[in-house]
Amino acid sequence: MQSFFTAISGGITVKAGWFFVLAVNVFLAFCIYLIFSRFGGIRLGGPNAKPEFTTFGWFSMLFSAGMGIGLLFFSVAEPIIHFSNPPIPVDGQEAAASQAMRFTFLHYGLHAWAIYSVVGLALAFFTFNRKLPLALRSVFYPLVGKRIHGWFGDVIDIIAVVATLFGLATSLGFGVQQISSGFHHLFSTPDSLQTQVWLIAGITLAATTSVVLGIDKGVRILSEFNIRLAAVFLGFMLIVGPTLFLLDSFIQNIGGYMASLIEMGTWTEAFSGTTWQHDWTVFYWAWWISWSPFVGMFIARVSKGRTVKEFLLSVLIVPSILTFLWHSVFGGSALAAEFALPGSIADAVNENISVALFVMLEQYPLATVTSGVGIVLVSVFFVTSSDSGSLVIDSITSGGKLDAPVGQRIFWALTEGAVAAALLLGGGLAAMQTAAISTGLPFTLILLIMCYSLYKGLQSEADDMDKAENIAERRSYQQIVREIVQRQKKPNNP
Amino acid sequence: MTQPNTPIAFALDLTEQDEVLLGYMRDFLSEREELPELYFIHNVKYGMDDDLLEILEEPLTEILAHEVLERAHRYFPHVKASQVKITEHESTVEGVLTAVEHCQAQLLVMGKKLQSDGSGITPLRVLRQNRCHVLLIPESPKPKTTKILVPVDFSKNAGRAMSAATEIASEKNAEIKMVHVYHLPNAYFPFVPVRSMRETMKKKAQKEIQTFVKAHSWNPASFETYIVDGEDRSIVQQLEMEIKIHQIDFLVLAVKGHSQILGSVALGVQQWYNRTPVLFVKSK
To answer: Does A219 have pLDDT greater than 70?
Structure first.
């Protein structure tokens, strides 16, 4: 079964890898264009809409959208794997470490957030400015008009649902593998498929219970608690880890990333003939794309009252910087330990990627406590992702409504768990990657069309605004001048 | 900025707002023994319809210069024709800025209409690109300046704003309230009880206010200082509230120098607030 999934995934990444790379660069270029274009001043919700949240609160929410299972799973594993097996051959461990961090930043940085920005902005614009339902179909209004309410819209939303479902299932699959490894590490419980499926069942049940009880508020508290816990975790690692090295590397990593953004962002292994990118960069782009309706919808809902420029600058930069900090601290701590004692982390990670975080934590004080914190973080992210994921799918399948029947939410919460379990049983990591890549591919095409549709929508909004303002202003100015001229023409005028 | 010899420019748009603006400034400058040099700017933005151009007996710029002079005379009788500057530019912002630079004005006075009129963009762009201080006059300002509010963040720029406010207050015999709005950064301070965090923030802000006042040569008895918890309100919303509660009639706000990027408070006040005159003090 695993070889079947590997063959599909391999086929898509070999044939369409270039397409994913091109697409994410188009998304980033499109975002940068919008920031500096005349559309930058368009306010989401209309010219008089006021932001619903303070800038600080809004930034916190964008940050929370960026935090998740992926960060916990890959923040140690990815730099270590790229360090021990450099994607592009380099001389010396310094160059290898630097390259490892740059590739990690590439996968979690501006390109990733450009995908979410496009989806979030399109959803927010068509929902708040054009008063259409908060669903993917609405974004295509400038291209197909009222047909978004017919079969065309249904197809778009079905693809969005399937993409979200598989994107979410991929994250949940990673999460459960990590929890299982964590338990194995701490309590020597068996780290087997069976344990992972039981864990999926248990945590899905917890998420479903929260759905049934309608304790959205409780989930929100849990989510806030998790972000605070993550902040403490980050602070703790920064203090107990090699602090100066981590701060130094944070700055250097950002510089290195910025300097090689275009080169790395467009690198397709064309001349090296290797296939490293298929399992990493292409997988990430597909994963983020399939995850984008979920994050995009969340970002859209909290961004009313922001201008297009504010929205894009904030969504691109704020979560990227915080994610970079996270990677620099966790990945940097792992690299520092690996420098000190070669093989201390890399050997274990290369054998089982999901133990990465725990092996790294072992090198620092209070490893049992911090490993426990790691497990709590992944588990809570699992519950909140599953719960809010079912809310998003629910919202799409009910035409943008937020008050769909509880039964429907239960159905989606259980389906997510079932898909994650099925993928794990069916083919493990390869199956999850295949799921993300194969649903990401058609959705990439949809996103590219979405960019054009958003451009058309923004253009018509800006034209309407300029036209209305210019006509009114011009008329009123000419009237004023006419009155002045006539007044001055009168002979008795002083 | 309020020194007697500092040139002041007025951006007039030939609407009724000009009367409000000129009337307000006449009263505002009434305490001065000698008026500074005043310039009255108008930009002709649009071309005119042919039927209007046909009946013109002299160039349109001449006609509009007469009109501007006549308006200015009603409030400042000693204004000369040379103090009227008519520009013709597709962009009002460019036209106004060119004229301001030409007459080396240190203060630009503009009208601020309601946002719904679609006129908010010109003051915003002028504020961004202009090098001198900008005073925005709303549609119906209170005639007297008796209470001035100065929001501070203890920065150098806030110090400049406060200095400008003290100059105005001494001239107008007005009272100054210096306010600092703080927010609890609760998302990043887990496990610390909100109450104790609030107390800490409050004490820190009080200390900072004392240091801020000491660092400048202001007389602490000549103004009131206070701090306020913004809770879930933005600073702009909190300032709106303070203005209402304390019946403030003049707001002085610091803006970073000549920059496309305005601070969020200055931007918010410029966009959303239009009840009292606001003086945006630029750093350079």
So the answer is: no
Residue A491 pLDDT class (50, 70, 90 cuts): low
Residue A348 CA to residue A355 CA, distance in Å, equals 7
Nearest CA in chain A to B235: A54
Percent of chain A with pLDDT over 70: 91
Angle at which helices A151-187 and A367-397 cross, to 10°: 160
Report the chain A residue with the minimal C-alpha distance to residue B232: A54
Q: Where are the domains of chain A?
A: 2-35+58-126+137-303+310-486
CATH class name, domain A2-35+58-126+137-303+310-486:
mainly alpha
Indicate the residue of A47, A231, A488 with minimum beta-carbon distance to B63. A488
| Confidence at B190, pLDDT banded by 50, 70, 90 | very low
Q: Taking CA atoms, what residue in A is nearest to B119? A: A469
pLDDT, position B257 = 53
Q: Does A481 touch chain B (CB under 8 A)?
A: yes
Question: B12, B42, B43, B64: best mutation site toward chain A, by most A Cβ within 10 Å?
Answer: B64
Distance to chain A for B188, nearest Cα, Å: 6
Rounded CA separation A432/A420 (Å): 8
Which segments of B81-206 are extended strands (E)?
Answer: 84-88, 107-112, 133-138, 147-151, 175-182
* A residues 320-379 closer than 8 Å to B (CB): none
pTM (predicted TM-score): 0.67
| Complex confidence, ipTM | 0.76
- How far A478 CA sits from the closest chain B CA (Å)? 7
Which residue from A55, A224, A478 is facing B234, i.e. has the nearest CB?
Answer: A55
Q: Which domains does chain B have, with CATH numbers?
A: 8-138 (3.40.50.620), 147-282 (3.40.50.620)
Instruction: Tell if the CB–CB gap between B232 and A469 is shorter than 8 Å.
Output: no
User: Can you name the residues that pair with B92 across neighbouring β-strands?
Assistant: none
Q: Does A57 touch chain B (CB under 8 A)?
A: yes
Strands of chain B (E only): list them: 8-11, 38-44, 84-88, 107-112, 133-138, 147-151, 175-182, 223-229, 250-255, 278-282
A220 touches chain B (CB under 8 A): no
Q: Which two tokens stand for residue A401?
A: 């409504």
